[in-house]
What does this fold into?
Amino acid sequence: MSRVFMKGCEAIAEAAVRAGCRFFAGYPITPQNEIPEYFARRLPEVGGNFVQGESEVASVSMIYGAASTGTRSMTSSSSCGISLKSEGISYCASARIPMVYANISRGGPGVGSIQPAQQDYFQATKASGNGGFQMMVLAPASVQEAVDMTYKAFDYAQRDRNPVLILCDGVIGTMMEPVVLPEMKTEEEVAALKTANKEWACIGHKLDYPNRAWIEPGQWQTSKMQEVNEEAAALYASWEKDVQVEEYMVEDAEIVIAAYGISARISKSAVNVLRGEGIKVGLIRPITVSPFPYKAFDNINYGVCKAVLDVEMSIPAQFVQDVEKGVKERCPIETCLCSGGNIMSREAIITAIKKINEN
It folds into this structure.
């Protein structure tokens, strides 16, 4: 297939359309504005619908409604906008409604800055809304990965009847790279995907088969709600098979970098530079940050590893807590951090590695 040169946000939107997304509702916020702008142009071309809601809350509520009909639906925002959507995302998780959303994250907390950051890690992986629900969270390190993950996210969402998040920082959302786009699903395939949801979807008329729209009296009593939560816990446990991670030059590494997203991409270039200088450095890059690839840290040779260096664009560090669970106190953990819209530099990583190496 041919390669095309696209901005990250626009590539995400095109991948969603090709995956069969036919409804998008959103609200402007930097640095994700190109996603709704692209959908506004593109969805009418394939018989889909775009709505700019009057707010983030309204937009995610529209997604709740559209996705409830079995239509592949998506929304997006940036950081503080995602916070406003969290209630609607919780509703989708509770009602087992599949939807996909993207967070093109920026600095914080609060409104923060419009520049890139990785300060939404806790929100994405630990508390995307009330009630303790969990989601698959995919963290691309390139525009191509953002395309591939978005395309696949719709399958995950429909398979699990659960929200799926593309956690994508502002660097990847706004940079341009050549990408190979996935095949466009035909209208027949899109229709078949929707038909496959008929046993639970709300389609607005009396059915000749059981449908989840008909709620039995007492269904949401305490005992039933616990049963629903237990079923959800079993679903979350099943995601172990979906864990994705990149392990780069870890086998003989005396220092291992742990990073995700754009920080991992910058870290990988630092590994290559340092290897050229004879310093044995490796990289563990979680591709799914939920579920987290804890087992990858068992592959570190702790007999020679001096330390694991957590690299992230967040102060205080957040990603490091999952790194600590993976390392299990088998070696020291150091940090290399920036935040608030400052982008991690390769020089800062190299300096941190050399400092560890000298000790």
User: Anything to note?
Assistant: The chain has two domains: 3-241, 245-358.
